[in-house]
Specification:
Radius of gyration: 18 Å
CATH superfamily: Winged helix-like DNA-binding domain superfamily/Winged helix DNA-binding domain
Structural class: alpha+beta
Number of domains: 1
Strand order of the largest sheet: 1-3-2
CATH architecture: Orthogonal Bundle
Distance between the termini: 16 Å
Shape: globular
Order of helices and strands: HEHHEEHH
Strand content: 15-25%
CATH class: Mainly Alpha
Number of strands: 3
Length: 120
């Protein structure tokens, strides 16, 4: 089993959550989302983000509008819907529980992350 495969799955699992957070702040263009995700070290490519945004839209959690651009074709700007806000609120609660639970498990018996490194 390769650690890279598990790391990829972990990132995929939180990607929708992160995108909903980003669009909950207001209208945003997909390439700006990509930049923010990349800056946060959640590496993602256009081929991943557009299908995810489309799924969020079909689920009624996000929507977009076309905005004319002076420097090229119109752009899609995404926003969160009221249903998306409620969905995100529930995900926030789950996230907090998961962070607490995993912290309890991974920190039990270890005084520091250095101890974990020494175990490996």
């Amino acid at each position: 089993m390769k650690v890279e495969n598990t790391q990829i799955q972990m990132r995929k699992g939180i990607l929708e959550f992160c995108i909903l957070h980003i669009i909950s702040r207001g209208e945003i263009y997909a390439s700006d989302m990509l930049e923010e995700l990349t800056a946060a070290k959640l590496m993602i490519v256009e081929g991943t983000i557009y299908p995810l945004l489309n799924r969020l839209r079909k689920a009624g959690l996000a929507e977009y509008k076309w905005v004319e651009s002076t420097s090229g074709p119109p752009r899609k700007y995404y926003t969160i819907t009221p249903e998306g806000i409620e969905f995100l609120s529930q995900l926030n609660s789950t996230w907090k529980e998961l962070v607490e639970s995993t912290s309890t498990i991974i920190n039990k018996g270890f005084n520091s992350s250095q101890d974990l490194d020494n175990e490996q």
